[in-house]
Amino acid sequence: MNQHPNVNPAPEEDNDDEMVGTLLSRRRALRLLGFGGGAAALAASSVLAQRTPPPGGQGGSTSLGSSGATSLPGCVVRPAQTEGPYFVDEKLNRSDIRKDSKTGKASAGIPLTLNFVVSKVTVGSCTPRGRVLIDVWQCDALGVYSDVSGNTDDFLRGSQVTNAQGKASFTTVYPGWYPGRAVHIHFKLRPLDASGKPTGEFTSQLFFPEAVTDAAHAVAPYNSKGKRNTLNSTDGIYRNGGSQLLLSLSGNPQKGYRATFDVGLNIG
Questions:
Q1: Given 100, 140, 165, 172, which is the most exposed site by the fewest CB atoms within 10 A?
Q2: Residue 132 in contact with residue 200, Cβ under 8 Å?
Q3: Do residues 61 and 266 touch, judged by C-beta distance below 8 A?
Q4: Is 106 left (phi over 0), alpha (psi -120 to 50) or beta?
């Protein structure tokens, strides 16, 4: 099996909570949605810097689902985070990403259903946004990524295009851990034009509550790896806005977990 490298974020990757492009700030998103005054003041500490899009037209800003803010709608601005070294544009159009497409072998682990709901922030509301390509990639229960460092498998990678209701769903496994990183899942959003060509790009990561990870990693096959060495609080990437990307999950290690993540995307 491929030995996963020890991954620590490089200094230049630590600034991963910057938005790119010249679109919505968190405060402006809240104002568009009708949350002035108090809500905008509440969000002021999370307003993100903007910078010029990189060459090639990639980049953008986004607004992501609010965890723990029950008075707010799903569309509030959240941070972009580093793509990391393990993205591969596999073009694997599939909802269940657990199997390697060549061998048919499924990754062991606790089932996780991850639902995305993509919207566009408009005045007073979030409207569903279809035709957004969502890529998801992650490590397996033992901290290994497919298709890197000589590993030619493609497990735990896949993409879906949102339907007219802005929805896409993935069946995966609860992620394991590897040195230097908190438990996480990567995702990338690319709006598509009528010909299927991407018109923008937003990349970030999803994180997990420590108590849920403790319960999940106490069972096989996770417990064979031992206790993880990096928590959310000590992960350099999580500290740059990860609390705004924290999933709220239902379920348990015996029956599996489920989470829904709202994404307000205003690029492309």
A1: 165
A2: no
A3: yes
A4: beta
> Residue 52 class from Cβ within 10 Å (0-12 exposed, 13-18 middle, 19+ buried)?
exposed
Q: Beta-carbon neighbour count of residue 94 at 10 Å?
A: 16
- Cα–Cα distance between 24 and 192 in angstroms, integer? 20
Q: Strand 125-128 to strand 111-122: parallel, antiparallel, or no bridges (unpaired)?
A: antiparallel
Nearest to 64 by CA among 114, 112, 157, 126: 126
Among all chains, which residue has been given the structure tokens 């099996």?
1
Residue 90 has which token pair? 């596999």
Q: Using one digit for the tens of pLDDT, what is the confidence trace for 151-199?
A: 889 999 999 999 999 999 999 999 999 999 999 999 999 999 999 999 9
Task: Tell me the one-letter amino acid at 106.
Answer: A
Contact 237, 14 (CB under 8 A): yes
Query: What is each CA distance from 108 to 48, 97, 105, 222, 266, in whole angstroms?
Result: 38, 12, 9, 9, 36
For the chain, domain boundaries: 12-265
Could you tell me how many helices (H) and strands (E) the chain has, helices first? 3, 11
Upstream peptide bond of 221 is cis (omega within 30 degrees of 0)? yes
Taking all residues of the chain, what is their mean pLDDT, rounded to a whole number? 80
Q: What is the DSSP letter of 224?
A: G
